[in-house]
Amino acid sequence: MRIATWNVNSVRARADRVAAWLERTGTDVLAMQETKCADAQFPYSVFEAAGYEVAHVGVSQWNGVAVASRVGLDDVEVGFPGQPTFGGEAPVVEARALGATCGGVRVWSLYVPHGRAVGDPHYVYKLEWLARLRDAARGWVDPTTGDPHAPIALVGDWNVIPLDTDVWDVAEFDGHTHVTAPEREAFAAFADAGYTEVSRVFVPDEHTYTYWDYKQLAFPKNKGLRIDFAWASPALAARVTGASIDRQERKGAGPSDHVPVVLEVA
What we know:
Elements: E1 2-7, H1 11-25, E2 29-33, H2 44-49, E3 53-57, E4 65-69, E5 74-78, E6 97-102, E7 105-111, H3 121-141, E8 152-157, H4 181-192, E9 196-197, H5 198-202, E10 211-212, E11 224-225, E12 228-232, H6 234-237, E13 240-245, E14 261-265
Helix pairs in contact: 3-4
């Protein structure tokens, strides 16, 4: 089975491109982030015509996550247990997490909050969001509260740069989000919860990125970030036989600023 994650940066703008990529690559399950549309606006028909079922949660032009699968789509869950809220007088659980069981694998499409600026309320929210997700993920594989043999994939846009070599110039991020110690520690804590970031296992290269800004010729100059990842539970990690980053999808007309991260699962 082939499982991928891709921040598509507006699914309505790129539905045909994404569907063509699915068919061309033989991908069975795709977790999408930043769909940027309400549920009623999602282009379900494009994916259904390609043979995929889709689960989506989105409420506006911001955020939004989806899972498209041609190997089954069961037990869809919007939001993970304990997912924190954000907002002013009426805080809401944002459309940032969606789980579904596809071909026997529990796939979570995740769009981690950006953080905006160090010390901003959104930064505090980001750290809490990651901590709550880690707690939920630990519980899913705990022998007492969950199933240690459960194949679980936590995939998506994590908005964290774990290593200095995951950015073209870490000095450019000095004093900014994505590289701070608390963010990196929150990301690394998923290993303590029993998970393995499997894309790093198979694609360890330094300065291999998954995101390039649209501005200032960032892609031709390879001024990128590695912020899209796949944490796998022990049972799933044992089945992952390969991983790749499809850099080609940043090329051509109208690309997303992110590219797919693909897992091969036995």
